[in-house]
# Entry
Amino acid sequence: MKKSGKLTVLGSINADHILNLMQFPRPGETVTGSKYQVAFGGKGANQAVAAGRSGADIAFVACVGDDDIGRRIRQQLATDRIDITSVDVVADQSTGVALIFVNGAGENCIAIHAGANASLTPDRVRQHQQSIAESDALLMQLESPLESVLTAAKIARQHQTRVILNPAPAVALSDELLGLVDMITPNETEAEILTGVHVDSDEAAARAAGVLHEKGIDSVLITLGSRGVWLSEQGKGQRIAGFRVEAVDTIAAGDTFNGALIAALLEGQAMDRAVHFAHAAAAISVTRHGAQPSVPWRSEIDRFLQ
Ligand code: ADP
# Structure
């Protein structure tokens, strides 16, 4: 039985270790950082948190390690209004880790260890298939094993659950997977990897969107950083500008955009209104540091839009 407006997010959970420094170290060099923080991240968790704080009815399918930080992340997800029944604690595994350097120019450089995220296997996805089956939408990214993303997309298709894919980080994808996707939300780099079109203008974004439509995807949203998003649906494309803000850290901008977008769509907002809402959420997030600490709550987004 479908639960109206319900969302399942399937994806990664990481502990982000963020070090701010003036310049990235070169091979063999040691540099001293100016600020260090451990924040909860991972594209799946960030998007789940963004959807939850935006007001969505959401369940999360993911894995943490059997360690202290994994348990703390699970608890935090619950306080972010997320059903964590399907967030498994995997024995003898560590929680996923991202080591993030942020330099003086605000650029980042990231290395990831999948840890427990690698245990989100197709078998484990099948164990949690009821959540996908009873949802209106399934939102996924690519920090989980690709065969598991494909398995989840197939389950969703069998149960008329809409499949939304944020194809990050950038990898080439099979036509089989793309053919199961209803809505895709790449950034410019990811759009180029998927289509071969270098997205440096609205016209190029329209061409990249055309390639993705040909693969069978109905709705294409190419996020363009501070320039907003290229939205292409039913043969019509348009750029919807974002908000001008003083950006301090764009970590999780795309994740916040995705979670807020789906939350707004599931409560029945039209696509252009939902994009506007998601732009507001993402704009707030870039004015703050870190991944999940930067994700705004619904009340903050509504106030920003007043
Ligand atoms: P990603 O973080 O996945 O690379 P983008 O950089 O394209 O994604 O950003 C996603 C969304 O975040 C944009 O569509 C926009 O809404 C918002 N955003 C990103 N950077 C800025 C910025 N500098 N100012 C305002 N909004 C931004």
